[in-house]
Each structure stands twice: as C-alpha cells, then as structure tokens.
Amino acid sequence: MKRMMTMKLPLPPDVEFREDFSLLIHRPRGVLNKAAINKMISVIGELEFTLKKPFNRFLDTVTTDAVDLNLEYVRRVSLYRRRVYGNRPAVKTAILATDSTMANYGRLHASLTEGSPINVRVFQDRKEAAQWLGVPVELLEEKDHS
Predict the structure, then answer these.
(1) Dist. CA 94–CA 12, nearest whole Å
(2) What's the whole-number mean pLDDT along residues 92-100?
(3) Is 2's pLDDT higher than 50?
(4) Of 5, 34, 55, 93, which residue is the least packed, with the fewest Cβ within 10 Å?
(5) How far apart are CA 52 and CA 72, in angstroms?
(6) CATH of 3-133, one of 3.30.750.24, 3.50.50.60, 3.40.47.10, 3.20.20.140
(7) pTM for the complete prediction?
(8) What φ, ψ does residue 136 adopt, rounded to 5°?
(9) Which CA distances in Å does 127 have to 6, 110, 136?
(10) 21-50: b (≥16 Cβ within 10 Å) or e
(11) Which residues contact 41 (CB under 8 A, 6 or more apart)?
C-alpha cells in the first residue's frame, strides 16, 4: 500500500512525508542502487514543484542490504540536484549511514553540494540527525514492519 500525502501525491512505500515537520523520510530496503536513487530524485522533484516551499530530507540507510552505486553516478546526481535546486531556500539532508560505503557516498554528496542551499551531513547516530534536523528523534525511528 502506498502512503499518500495530504495533497494526494502518491509516494513509494519506503517514503513518508511529514508536512507538520516539512520532512521527507526515505527508508530504502534491499539494495540501494541507481534505480532507487532515480526514483527518489523524481519524488523530491515532484514535491519541490508541488509544495513550492522548502523541506528537509532524512535518508535512513540502516536497513539496506547492500549499496550498488559508483562514484561517478553519485557525482552526477549531486551536481544535478545542485543545479536543479538552484537558489531556493536552504534545506538539510541528513543521511543515517552505519555502512562505510554508504557513509563515503554520503560524504561525497555532501562535498559536491557544499556552497549550495542543499546542506548534507552524514550521521551514525539517529539522535544527532534528529537534533540537526530540529525534529523529535521518535520521528526518525525505524517503524515496525512486522
């Protein structure tokens, strides 16, 4: 079942949008690959177009089984997002990554978006990510999917 936003924009099952906190939460499962990232880029673009106001992002990579990306792809995505986002108001992207490969890709994304309104930080601690985003840690906790 797909989650729906208040404005009826359909979201993938691993995505939640909290209008009350202006926060997009993405909890990918399985393999984090180009297809998954491309899907999220589309979702983010649709939300930016529809909402017309800034919102922060939280990427929880803890439940991913593997990462199938490469440096060139992450570089292209980062530069694309930087160009498309343009000079809009500043937003924060917190990446929760306990896997060293994912953390390295997150740091690359952060360095490539540096100097733009897209502020990216990689965290190993959910509580620190919540503090940086200015949201309750409970909002970022993994939901029980059993």
Answers:
(1) 19
(2) 96
(3) no
(4) 34
(5) 30
(6) 3.30.750.24
(7) 0.90
(8) -65, 140
(9) 27, 20, 8
(10) bbbbbbbbeeebeeebbeebeebbeebbee
(11) 77, 80, 81
Which two structure tokens, joined as six digits, stand for 72? 């060139």
Report how far residue 12's alpha carbon sits from residue 32's, in angstroms, rounded to the nearest whole number. 14
Q: Is 6 left (phi over 0), alpha (psi -120 to 50) or beta?
A: alpha
Could you give the 3-state DSSP secondary structure of residue 93? strand
Task: Kindly tell me if the per-residue pLDDT of 27 is higher than 70.
Answer: yes
Instruction: Answer yes or no: is pLDDT of 7 > 90.
Output: no
Sort strands 118-123 and 64-68 into parallel, antiparallel or unpaired.
unpaired
Our CA dihedral for 109, 54, 24, 71, rounded to 10 degrees, sits at -10
Summarised one tens digit per residue, pLDDT across range 121-146 is 999 999 999 999 999 999 999 876 54
